[in-house]
UniProtKB/TrEMBL annotation:
The keyword Hydrolase applies. Residues 20-221 form the Helicase/UvrB N-terminal domain. Residues 442-465 are annotated as: Disordered. Keywords: Endonuclease, Hydrolase, Nuclease. One of its GO terms (molecular function) is endonuclease activity. Pfam families: ResIII (PF04851). It comes from Flaviflexus salsibiostraticola. The keyword Lyase does not apply. This is Restriction endonuclease. Signal peptide: none annotated. GO terms for cellular component: cytosol. SUPFAM superfamilies: P-loop containing nucleoside triphosphate hydrolases.
Length: 853
């Protein structure tokens, strides 16, 4: 039995949960995991967390790694079941990728079969000397960890070559595999751990051979013999609103005959078109929502079957040539993986993914809206490994639109056959809860209790599409899990639904939508401006010898010593008693070390410093070394006559100094602001959500009639005559002031879709409310705020970032000859100010001016 050197710190759990924006069940799971690790456990027996697909296991994994780091445990290996999952996981933990999980205080360093660089760098220096050191996350798939048949070649793309590479001794770093085995703090996280159980002997042994300090298993399909420490089953994830509700769509008598699969695929394409219409309508009503499109996932029996199906779908009456992607063992090249990685991009042309079983575990796209299982056994259709590919919510949270919030599963078998399978209750995590008292057919009507609560606000795990923060959902408090009234205590949410079609019945296609279009105000037609959108990034520049300070050089030089050489002395002693000759140790002799030329010392110092792996041998560093560092070092040294011993001492002191400077450099980051001009308005028109009309403008005493996010007009000085607002006193009254002020030329309400954001940390940005141009030619960035934000640290951080941004614009070429200002308008100031001029005095804004010479 073992324990990890960590403690159960609820405050730290709360802080990490906040930083990673964990869902409640993930925070609960993190606490249970830490609790188990602080007690006695078998490090070779995985502590299994059985969590529903789509529940956010990746975010829980990341939060656990950060918790370990803050307790001094830096080495974590994530074992994945396949190359597809491995590549996705590398992106999850590598800063700069769209899939990167944000929340880490220090970006992890990733080691994978594609790159050992981070490990080599750490090997050359000292490992983990401070709390600011990053986690080392080793990401390999389980096939690469199985012992190879031979260890003679580590080149090539074969699996044995990959297995050999991790074990082979390398002169610059040693053997990575042996290094991992010798660590006393290695934590192994087995993703999809049900694949590495005792029955998978080679995989199971591969994990045990690593001799980890702890093994953690993550799966949606735990076995009865697993050491399960936390459960969050699928039925809870469905009832909590974290995943879609599965809907079985089926023909009353199934699909039969020669044309069975063609008809099933035509039905699937009809369902997909309905989903596409629903997504388009929702995006039109919520323009700030992420740009995403639904996709169809077709599961085939084998590669030959998948190839035939893909060819059929590329033909007339189905989808286009470029919109069908086949992924299996024979269709897994670089271009296929690139298309698969880019599936969530708004520009992806893919509408249909055809596969066998390659994408069952770990593939986490949010686009799958329809699943079509061809020739699949009934027991295979409703497993989380199959069904789970489509459970993730496309917009991060329930929308209230059933077509979007549901996963349509079209199977060739009948509804009765699907629900008659004995494993159906296990899939939904109800096998132990009901102890066999619930049948498969009853599951279709089974509903989970839904506690009364407030509106659900999505977490980062639900907002991880590239550059999207899911802000639209935070501004939509009227969304309900059932698309209607608020749920009361004891209300229920259906776990699984079914839609039965008669054999001759066709699927009705959704009608097109025609929203109301709003054009730019005729008075300002053609008006555009550049908005200074900003980002912040922590950067570490390459180490330069110019960072080594003179006082440090002098201090190192003063430590150089010439202690001379020591010769041991043995006295010969003759023994008459036994006629032998012996030796006896006597006092050592101190002698001068061999003299060396001063130029030889300079050459050796130069050679050894430039030979350090951490020092780039470029013209700048060579000049720093030859013209400053070594001359300064030699002058400050106390050595008058150089010897071999003094030379060795000098080399040691200078190398130690340089390596210390390298470590200090690696642990220090700086925040760099990057300005990306965005031309606004993006379009000369925009459309209102379906069913929305323009409301008449309200006067200052008509607050009772104000509708949050209602559309109001006509605004005479607005770039657009219609605008919507989130608050009365913070935004609407401010718009009234701008619209009727003689000092204002025009103003524009900013929306998230404009992309006009200001970064106030490397992880966070915010969107101001207005831009206004005054008659002095100053563009004002304006933020309306509640009085509660006066002393709020976040509001102050946003203000500081905006002020810094405005100052940066003075030297930015794209904003030459323009003036900018930033103003926070608190609601009490807006109410008491009689004019725009009054408000500026109260708000004490930051403004830049152009001075003429």
């Amino acid at each position: 039995m073992a324990t990890l050197p960590i403690s159960l710190d609820q405050g730290m759990i709360d802080q990490i949960a906040k930083e990673f924006d964990l869902r409640a069940p993930n925070k609960e799971g993190l606490r249970q995991l830490i609790f188990q690790l602080t007690g006695d456990f078998d490090p070779l027996d995985p502590l299994v967390m059985n969590m529903a697909t789509g529940a956010g296991k990746t975010y829980l994994m990341a939060a656990a790694i950060e918790y370990f780091r803050r307790h001094g445990i830096h080495n974590v290996m994530i074992v994945t079941p396949s190359l597809v999952v491995q590549n996705k996981t590398v992106q999850n933990f590598s800063f700069g990728f769209d899939r990167y999980v944000r929340g880490f205080a220090v970006h992890p360093e990733v080691v994978s079969p594609q790159s050992y660089d981070a490990w080599r760098v750490r090997q050359a220096g000292n490992f983990f000397e401070s709390a600011s050191d990053p986690s080392m996350v080793y990401i390999f798939n389980v096939h690469q960890l199985v012992a190879p048949r031979s260890t003679t070649s580590s080149t090539g793309a074969t699996m044995d070559a990959q297995r050999t590479k991790i074990r082979k001794f390398q002169e610059d770093a040693g053997s990575l595999y042996e290094f991992l085995r010798e660590l006393d703090d290695l934590v192994v996280i087995a993703d999809e751990s049900h694949l590495y159980g005792a029955s998978a002997k080679a995989f199971n042994q591969a994990l045990r051979d690593l001799t980890p300090a702890a093994t953690i298993g993550l799966t949606a399909s735990a076995s009865r013999g697993d050491n399960v420490i936390y459960r969050y089953p699928l039925h809870r994830a469905i009832s909590d609103g974290f995943v879609k509700t599965p809907v079985l769509v089926y023909r009353k008598s199934g699909y039969h005959g020669e044309q069975a699969e063609e008809r099933q695929l035509r039905d699937a394409m009809s369902l997909l078109r309905n989903k596409e219409a629903a997504y388009a309508a929702f995006r039109n009503d919520h323009p700030d929502a992420p740009e995403t499109k639904p996709a169809l996932f077709v599961v085939c029996a084998n590669v030959e079957h998948a190839t035939q199906t893909a060819e059929l779908l590329r033909g007339p009456g189905y989808a286009s040539e470029m919109s069908v992607l086949q992924v299996d063992n024979q269709h897994d090249g670089e271009e296929t993986r690139k298309m698969l990685d880019g599936l969530d991009s708004p520009d992806s042309p893919i509408r249909v993914v055809v596969s066998v079983d390659k994408l069952k575990e770990g593939w986490d796209t949010k686009r799958i809206a329809v699943m079509c299982t061809l020739r699949a056994m009934a027991s295979e259709v409703l497993t989380q490994q199959t069904m789970g590919r489509g459970l993730r919510l496309p917009f991060g949270t329930r929308t209230g639109v059933p077509t979007i919030d549901q996963l349509d599963i079209l199977a060739h078998t009948s509804f009765a056959e699907l629900l008659d399978d004995e494993n159906i209750l296990k899939t939904f995590g109800l096998d132990e809860a009901v102890d066999g008292e619930l049948s498969g057919e009853e599951l279709a009507a089974h509903a989970q209790p839904q506690p009364k609560g407030t509106d659900y606000v999505p977490s980062s795990a639900e907002r991880d599409m590239a550059a999207e923060k899911r802000a639209w959902s935070e501004s939509e408090p009227d969304l309900r899990l059932d698309g209607g009234a608020e749920l009361e205590a004891g209300d229920t949410v259906v776990t699984i639904k079914a839609v039965e079609l008669e054999d001759s019945e066709e699927i009705e296609l959704a009608p097109p939508v025609e929203p109301l279009e709003i054009r730019i105000n005729p008075a300002f037609e053609g008006t555009t401006f550049l908005f200074p959108t900003s980002t912040m990034e922590e950067t570490i520049a390459p180490f330069r010898l110019s960072e080594v300070h003179d006082h440090a050089i002098q201090a190192a030089a003063r430590r150089v010593r010439d202690t001379g050489e020591v010769l041991q002395r043995q006295k010969l002693v003759a023994s008459e008693s036994d006629s032998s000759l012996k030796t006896e140790r006597i006092e050592d002799a101190q002698v001068a070390s061999a003299p060396v030329n001063k130029d030889d010392v300079v050459r050796e110092l130069t050679r050894r410093v430039l030979g350090l792996r951490q020092v780039t041998k470029n013209q700048t560093n060579v000049a720093q070394l030859q013209k400053r560092i070594i001359p300064e070092f030699m002058e400050a040294s106390p050595i008058a006559e150089w010897t071999e011993k003094a030379k060795d001492s000098a080399v040691s002191e200078l190398e130690t100094l340089i390596l210390q400077a390298v470590r200090e450099h690696a642990s220090s980051t700086r925040t760099e602001i990057t300005i990306r001009p965005v031309r606004l308005p993006i379009d000369q028109t925009f459309t209102l959500p379906i069913g929305e009309d323009v409301r008449a403008l309200l006067e200052e005493d008509q607050q009772a009639a104000f509708q949050v996010r209602g559309f109001y007009g006509e605004w005479s000085k607005g770039l657009f005559p219609v605008a919507t607002f989130d608050s009365w006193s913070g935004e609407y009254l401010l718009a009234l002031m701008l619209n009727y002020s003689s000092d204002i030329v025009w103003w524009k309400r900013l929306y998230r879709r404009d992309g006009a954001s200001i970064a106030y940390s490397t992880r966070d940005n915010y969107y101001p409310d207005f831009v206004a141009l005054d008659r002095e030619g100053i563009h004002w960035i304006i933020e309306g705020k509640s009085d509660r934000g006066v002393d709020d640290e976040t509001v102050q951080s946003k203000k500081d970032a905006a002020v810094s941004l405005v100052n940066e614009l003075i030297s930015h070429p794209d904003f030459d000859n323009t003036s900018w200002g930033y103003l926070i308008a608190f609601e009490s100031d807006v109410k008491s100010a009689e004019s725009w001029a009054d408000l500026k005095i109260m708000a004490n804004p930051s403004v830049t001016k152009r001075y003429t010479h």
